[in-house]
Write a structure and sequence with these properties.
With 201 residues, this protein is α+β, with helices and mostly antiparallel strands. Helix content is 34%, strand content 17%.
Length: 201
């Protein structure tokens, strides 16, 4: 099999990076660091044009208002058999600070996800009703995301995400009903208390 090597530009930069030596008037929604010269990459961040997201990918600030773009920004960390979960899923649904490490979940019994420094792999029951596709990846629904965040995170970390999800239209009552079906599950008591703080009755 024959392989080809992309010719190098100045200072050993790939030729593809030359297109970003002087960025066009409109940047793409997502920009991999590998496609930019170091000086350009830092200039775009200093100017506020880009926000670093995950795994060497940055996004235009304005583009991050779109959930599908937020999902696509994390796609390199999501294997096909996995879905974004917990704070990563919450960020995709409602924005806020990008996750420092991306949580992904695979169905119980599925092949495990390879280790990655930017990713936390989880295993749990994952019915199709708990998933939605946004951009190129699957994401837990807002209700499933809220339940997972409320059960797994320390309360002080869970509250801001739950408030954002509620402000984004989450039906807290639906989450409470789902938790009531598994009263003995780990973290369910904490989750109920946090969700009731949001006004669920």
């Amino acid at each position: 099999m024959t392989t080809t090597t992309e010719p190098a530009g100045p200072a050993g930069a790939p030729a593809g990076a030359l297109a970003w030596a002087h960025p066009p008037g409109r940047l793409p929604d997502l920009l991999p660091r590998a496609r930019t010269r170091p000086g350009t990459w830092f200039d775009l961040h200093r100017s506020g044009a880009l926000v670093a997201v995950a795994d060497g990918t940055a996004a235009r600030c304005a583009a991050l208002a779109v959930p599908a773009v937020r999902a696509a920004a994390l796609a390199s960390l999501v294997p096909a058999r996995a879905a974004l979960a917990r704070t990563a899923a919450a960020w995709v649904h409602v924005g806020g600070p990008p996750p420092t490490r991306v949580e992904v979940v695979v169905p119980t019994g599925a092949r495990r996800v390879d280790p990655h420094p930017g990713r936390v792999a989880l295993e749990a029951a994952l019915p199709a009703a708990d998933l939605v596709t946004l951009g190129p990846v699957r994401v837990t629904t807002p209700a499933r995301t809220a339940a997972d965040v409320a059960r797994a995170l320390p309360p002080e970390d869970a509250r801001p995400w739950l408030r954002r999800l509620a402000d984004g239209g989450l039906e807290v009552r639906d989450v409470l009903d789902a938790l009531a079906a598994r009263p003995g599950g780990r973290g369910v008591r904490q989750a109920r208390a946090l969700l009731l703080e949001l006004g669920g009755t």
